[in-house]
Amino acid sequence: QVQLVESGGGLVQAGGSLRLSCAASGHTFSSYAMGWFRQAPGKEREFVAAINWSGDRTAYADSVKGRFTISRDNAENTLYLKMNSLKPEDTALYYCAADLTLGLDYELGYRPGEYEYWGQGTQVTVSS
Fold it and tell me: Which stretches of 45-119 are assigned E, i.e. beta strand?
């Protein structure tokens, strides 16, 4: 299995930027497909971005397309989410997730139920 720890969240003004990191330990990170999800108070957890094991396939929610970039460094066992032009509606607890089956199938995951492993989350708050 793999353990995931997110960092990089914080308070930022609208229009600002943040870079989230997700450090992985345990099993072979490079075999896993990875994703970022977020959950705002009173709302369901929603898909933000996904990346396959090799990093050559990515996908984004329409709400973040063109503003967020997902990437990974398999040598450093780390997943990233660069967030630019942040909006108040981006405020949420951000989670990274990993799944080995998706990785081995060369697939991307878009739903929380497709991922087996989750971090504890990092809070992102965007003020207007």
Answer: 46-51, 58-60, 68-73, 78-83, 92-99, 117-118
